[in-house]
Amino acid sequence: MTQPAPEVNTADDNPKSDDPAEENTAAEEERPPTLLEQMGGVSGLLYSSVPVVVFVLANAFFGLTVGIWSAIGVAVAITVARIARKEPLQPAISGFFGVAIAAFIAYRTGSAKGFFLFGIWTSLAYGGVFLASVLVRWPLVGVIWSTLNGHGQGWRQDKKSRTAYDIATLTFVAVFAARYVVQKWLYDEDATGWLAFARLAMGYPLFAVALGVTVWAVRRAQVRHKELEVDGDDSDAAVEARLREKYADPA
């Protein structure tokens, strides 16, 4: 006698979690990291100021040598802590080497203000590179963002997207230029205390402005990308074909 076919439970074929927390976690894992997160997050920005503060205080109370070793010690501790917490490695390592180079310059010059010399000339170099990228029509903000997120460089073919990234890149040029001019002047005036203050005051606030402009540029470029997708095929071959059809001589 033929047995009836067993019922197949299809509920397990595509299991779905009933836990909203798990769904939110999965969504967060799929979400690409923001520019701030890729640079170490808010904690990374805060950590970068600690060695500077420690150096200035230790130098004021105990002298240059203690200030140098205190700054290096704090930088090492922060780097180890960030690695242990599995935070982004690149900002931690670059932050440590930045402090180490600054401390080495201060040691070689024998002056506390030498601790800030590396940052001053770095601002000048960064500003020059960002400005050059705009002049050659490869604005670095767009290049860096697209590279980090794997979006490609197709935005360069759209004038509005490129203009938005030009504006964001020039904002960083203004930030680096302001840092260089103000801090170089304080360096020449031997105003070490004010130099440290300027280093911190011109860090987060100016970076926040540049980051805000960057977010605007990224969103504008993304909107333009969607608009071009809706318009259809905008490849070089398609554009050329439309131009030939438009300007072809009537038979």
Count of individual beta strands: 0
What is the assembly state of the chains in this entry? single chain
Give the DSSP E fraction (strand runs of 2 or more residues).
Answer: under 5%
What is the overall number of helices? 11
Mean pLDDT: 79
Helical proportion, percent range: over 70%
Q: Which ranges are low-confidence, i.e. pLDDT below 50, for 5 or more consecutive residues?
A: 25-29
How does the major sheet shape up? none
Query: What is the 3D form?
Result: elongated
State the secondary-structure class: mainly alpha
Radius of gyration: 26 Å
Distance between the termini: 80 Å
Strand/helix succession: HHHHHHHHHHH
Walkthrough of the structure:
The protein is mainly α and 251 residues long. It is 75% helix and 0% strand. It is built from eleven helices and no strands. It has helices at residues 20-30, 35-38, 41-62, 64-84, 89-109, 117-135, 140-149, 159-188, 192-201, 204-231, 236-247. Helix 3 runs parallel beside helix 5 and helix 8 runs antiparallel to helix 9 (192-201). The longest helix has 30 residues, at 159-188. It is elongated, with a radius of gyration of 26 Å. The termini are far apart.
Short characterization:
This protein is mainly α. It has helices at 20-30, 35-38, 41-62, 64-84, 89-109, 117-135, 140-149, 159-188, 192-201, 204-231, 236-247.
Q: Helices and strands in order, then pairings?
A:
Elements: H1 20-30, H2 35-38, H3 41-62, H4 64-84, H5 89-109, H6 117-135, H7 140-149, H8 159-188, H9 192-201, H10 204-231, H11 236-247
Helix pairs in contact: 3-4, 3-5, 3-9, 4-5, 6-8, 8-9, 8-10
